[in-house]
Automatic annotation (TrEMBL):
<dbReference type="InterPro" id="IPR028098">
    <property type="entry name" value="Glyco_trans_4-like_N"/>
</dbReference>
<feature type="domain" description="Glycosyl transferase family 1">
    <location>
        <begin position="198"/>
        <end position="373"/>
    </location>
</feature>
<dbReference type="Pfam" id="PF13439">
    <property type="entry name" value="Glyco_transf_4"/>
</dbReference>
<dbReference type="InterPro" id="IPR001296">
    <property type="entry name" value="Glyco_trans_1"/>
</dbReference>
<dbReference type="InterPro" id="IPR050194">
    <property type="entry name" value="Glycosyltransferase_grp1"/>
</dbReference>
<dbReference type="GO" id="GO:0016757">
    <property type="term" value="F:glycosyltransferase activity"/>
</dbReference>
<keyword id="KW-0808">Transferase</keyword>
<feature type="domain" description="Glycosyltransferase subfamily 4-like N-terminal">
    <location>
        <begin position="15"/>
        <end position="190"/>
    </location>
</feature>
<dbReference type="Pfam" id="PF00534">
    <property type="entry name" value="Glycos_transf_1"/>
</dbReference>
<protein>
    <submittedName>
        <fullName>Glycosyltransferase family 4 protein</fullName>
    </submittedName>
</protein>
Amino acid sequence: MKIGFFSDTYKPQKNGVATALYFQKKTLEEEGHEVHLFIPYIPKILPEKNVYQLFSITFPFQKEHRIATPFSVKYDLYLNNLKLDVIHTHTPFSLGIFGAYEAKKRKIPLIHTYHTLLTEYAYYIWDHFPEMVKKCMITEKRAKDIAIWISRFYCNLCDTVIAPSTKIKKLLINFGVKKPIEIIPNGLDLRNFHPIDKKVAREKLNLPIDAYILLFVGRLGKEKNIEFLLKVMNKLKNYPKIYLLIVGDNPDKRVKNNLKEEAKKLNIEDRVIFTGYLDYHKVIEAYYSSDIFVFSSLTETQGLVVLEALTAGLPVIALEDEAIADFVKDEINGFLIPFKTSNIEESIILFSNKVIELLENHNLYKKLSENAINSAQNFSVQKINKRLLDLYNNLVKEYNIKNA
């Protein structure tokens, strides 16, 4: 099958969409399919077969991201010769617009994966353009309404929308999306995960050998709620061997500096380690060097890093969120902690108590760790690809009948 992917992000950019897309393309090609990927021009990208870069500029308030022109005469002509069977977009913006145009023009199926919960990223406008917000009288509600409109409008252009989790399917229906919605999570290439001795992994990352390490992996952004984890660490002051390892960064250095300052105020700065961005193989080493994966974000569409942690055998302690609950089962492979904005302190206490419980109950830890590895097997990218291909083939058949 000839498949066209259109995305605003790809490796070497470090985010869940770029990672998922890379493994999806790679494994589909291993299975004999032809995948053509259209992305913005990304500096330092390594040459790769069937990856096409369109002219792009830096995104205004996320400098690690770029936004491409939503049309290219060169690639419009090039697509005439490709004769794609389906187009699958991974963004509603620039390249997503180009992908939708090409699918409609060529009368082939258009599929879209809704990777990012746009309504939860409106705060970037306030943080970076306060004067514009003031002059244009953009309220938080108005910004979220615009995000909902974009989501609804784009999804309703498609033949089928893929939601990575139950949570996102429900939200899209509430947004007013009328097109069929399939729940297909992003998969992992489990072949990348080879158990590493914990001591060896810690030596490679220069981590304390005798520590009990809680791990967070992700972008350092307000939406990830990392301050919550610092407050959990504050509750664990009587356990000096517990460390928090934070893997990830933000091009806006103020974000990490603010987190470091908060750790200093709480007098836990000596037990909070910031690594910055790491290459993927180093991130895997971080999983195997750690004891528990901790996650406090409530804005995920899926949370691929949580799935990676389970694959490495880490029990997960996370704030209760429907996107995470699709694969973290309470008291089976981790713990889901109820979160109420009206009583955050209670959630902090519950969260820290579960850390202590796993630290002290070795049998429970072993059970959750084994269950974590077993549960992750259901999310191999090869199994996910089979579901994708079934969807593609069904849509192609429908189009063949329609266009006959």
